Amino acid sequence: MGLKTFGTMGVDWEARVDFERLRRERLHRIRTLLQQSELGALLCFDMANIRYISATHIGTWAMDKVARFCLLPRNDEPIVWDFGSAARHHQLYCPWLGTERSRAGISTLRGAMPPEAQRAEDVARKIRIELEERGLHREPLGVDIVEPPVLFALQKEGLKVVDGQQLLMEARKIKTQDEIILINTACAMVDAAYEELYRAMRPGVRENELVGLVAKVLYDLGSEHVEGVNAISGERCNPHPHVFSDRILRPGDPAYFDILHSYNGYRTCYYRTFFVGSASKAQIDAYKRCRDYLDAAIELIRPGVTTADVVRVWPRAEEFGFPNEEAAFALQYGHGVGLSIWEKPIFSRLVSLDHPEVIEEGMVIALETFWPASDGWSAARIEEMVVVTKEGCEVITRFPAEEPIVAGTRYYTATGPLPATRETQSNLNNMGALSRVQAVVESARREGIPAR
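Structure tokens predicted for Dimethylsulfoniopropionate lyase DddP:
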């Protein structure tokens, strides 16, 4: 495909992201699927779905509030209810939405509003009125996520509420050309963050400092939201805790990172593993095993292949220390990436063998593998994002990961550079050193020098 990479600006002298086309094609895709379904309308509270349908956004602070909502009736245009000032802003700056379809309206703020205020009932009444005006109030209403009071209020209004999330996931799984450019750009920004991480990692630096460094690099480049930075080092690598801490990096540590951020709404999920100063044989072996499983999966990605075909090349949970696939979930894993970091299709031995999904051109997929080292505490974690093309796939995560990378100062001894492959403890860490110590002790004993 030869995926293009641009800067983060819009310009008049080069065809880059066409945001009008992006809005038009996303809405067309979900409207087409809605018309083909049994649903009369879709009601969305999930910010990613609201953005996909309406191209409105009020900041990532609102992601967990479930306060704003959007209705897409069959054969009609979307209506968005939002914080009053945000609704006014949409009227001024979102001409594709129109002034009449941007309205003030707030849900329960996840229960923070007193039930007596009847915010849930107000939401349900607004939706019922719109559906009645269009003759859709007796048709199933697809809802993505919902607070129980709102669900009960919708049902009390006589509306038949069904799962609408699957239809939205189906719409979002195939990316448009503009979505792919935005995801590719988001990955380029993470490439830069890994470059700075590589330069900054050394003994004495803490995981949380590295998280702050990544956030600064990404926001400086134009990130909309740093959703999370997994920074895992040393003994914390196995088992994988999925959260950073204030642990201090030490010589010989493995350190792996997952950088999740958003550029114009589009996410990354992008792991890399480094070693601080040096790597042991056990760590190198773990990295190679992790990489081999990842490469085997990438080699299979092409249209027509199923998720079951891919996960069969990954190890069973019992092979790396877990009792079953649920216990090992998300360690050997794959998923679609778009406005959310986990979209269709899902690759996991937990579900994919019995419920395979077909890989299609235009999907953007993240594949991630994990392998514990034989030393009992180290591990490797690597992830690549790929765009599915007509004949295969193209990797869009470009920071080097083919071989283990050692970060930090290069040390020199009297005889030359300290090897980058060495055991993680510098004192008595191999049989050669132990033999030398034993020889010194034996020589002292023969000469009558008391051992200390």
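Residues 177-200 form the longest helix (24 residues).
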